[in-house]
Amino acid sequence: MTFPADYPINNRWPAKDPSVIQLYSFPTPNGIKVSLMLEESGLAYEPHTVTLADSDVRSPEFLSLSPNNKIPALIDPTVDGEPVTVFESGAILIYLAEKSGKFLSTDPAKRAETLQWLMWQMGGLGPMFGQLGYFTKFAGAQIEDPRPRERFLNEGKRLLNVLNGALEGKDWVVGDYSIADMAIGPWLNALEMYGTKDALGFAEFTNVVAYLDRFNARPAVQRAKNIPPRP
Ligand SMILES: N[C@@H](CCC(=O)N[C@@H](CS)C(=O)NCC(=O)O)C(=O)O
Questions:
Q1: 61 backbone φψ class: left, alpha, beta (φ>0; ψ -120 to 50)
Q2: Which residues approach ligand 1 with their CB closer than 6 A?
Q3: What is the pLDDT of residue 80?
């Protein structure tokens, strides 16, 4: 397989420079994580806007790369002549960390700790906050039964408390800035848009508040929020 000739996605989202990493994404929390890693690491890449509309994420061209019909997804055309494709934001972060040699320690203990917090975000913080958004801001907000909202609010508070504890005495979740922080930060920022900060008692988690301020002060974070650009 060679890129772009053998990749249908290129017919719909053509690469201008097929020699660099191709990112197919949208600036949601899961998308921003990967744009952020690309910006922080300095790897050369080309972003393509794939909206969340079925006409994009369920198109045959996108499904040929990301069969789970979700952004983000990536093609790295430069690996030993054989392109590498990856979907799932956590897997992409690990791939890019290994490729760049940045933001994931090679020390076994530090690496395990970083992956632990990355998986905590992937399996806990992201899905729970995503459901919280659905039941408070999006279509689920119309549902009268209060139990889903309560469940995800309580789970959100629990997770914020866990993170707050982990951040005690530290700037970043494993000490040095890593792919775990790049995964966690965008999901904390999503709470503003959901309008759930007060209901979660966000201000009481003072370590998390300071952490998010530090995160948002990074120039790459500000850039990544608009990569790829919304249509
Ligand atoms: N576990 C996946 C989740 C990705 C995900 O939920 N993507 C959403 C946007 S944040 C999406 O593409 N939704 C489109 C759809 O479900 O149709 C990851 O982390 O990459």
A1: alpha
A2: 28, 30, 52, 57, 69-72, 88-89
A3: 72
